[in-house]
Amino acid sequence: MKRCYVLLVNWNGWTDTVECLESLFRCEYPNLKVIVCDNGSSDDSLSRLREWAQGKSSSPPVPGSPLKELVSQKTTAKPVSFVEYDRDEAEEGGDSSADPELVLIDTGANLGFAGGNNVGLRYLLARADFDYVWLLNNDTVAEPHALTSLVERMEKSSEIGICGSTLLHYETPDKVQARGGAWYCKWVGLPWHLGQLGDAAQKVNIDQVERWMTYVLGASMFVSRQFLEDVGLMNEEYFLYYEELDWAFRGRGKFSFAYAPDSIVYHKVGRSVGTRTNPCQKSLTSDFYTIRNRLLFTRKFLPWALPSIYLSVLTAMFVRLLVGRWSHAKMIWRVLAGREGYV
To answer: Which one of 148, 234, 307, 308 is separated from 123 by 20 to 30 angstroms, measured CA to CA?
Structure first.
């Protein structure tokens, strides 16, 4: 049976991570290990996660959550065997004789989404004891069959490099966030999540979804070892957003991307940095990396599209001015002028 690791990045979000872990240790797939890379949290996350694994503490489900049966801590056996490493120890593969259910890694700093994941991926590459790795956001809850469905879809073709899940909204689980991934519009530099806002119960044409898919959404990316070894790690230059798109473009022509509709994952969306589609609700951090990386990605892969991208970014700046988000508009102007930072 193929060995799978699930890789989570935690940054000041141990309560979300505990919920995610509770659902993962209910997965039906038996050959499963979990890695949590903590990105320099200041909320005592590592201690909290250690106590959870030991069965000494718990974080109750959100009151009234429709997913409480997936995250109730009364039915997951404790203690959960675990080891802890710092970044250097982890990237060397840790203790080769240890094979715990859970690996906790202190990365030592906030390395961003790609950087935090890359520490865990280097750990796996050094150990070389895996077939697949599931990069999963820590603010998610997985159905028990989610991992099995990903493995089954991936096993159908050796050409598949990354497979995505059906992502549903945590607060409104009858609504779709994305079916597997997104279509990327090169002219404005923005994605459209496939199936977005649709009904979770709606039947879909899987082949059609996969034809439209430019990349698999970063909240749930099931990656083959072959893809990781051939394409390499994620690009840490982005820090946040566009890493999965960069990964997909680097893998084009070598690997295909797939969708496992029965792999159901509930996503809280933007808990760490205030990710929103509405410009009136986006945090400054989220807005900055979205704008900055839109330009960065285009310069790297699609330089011929830069004129229209600059126009779309200028439009975004005027929208911020119209809604009175002066600091956001100033930030966009600084990015266009080639100056780093928010202010």
So the answer is: 148
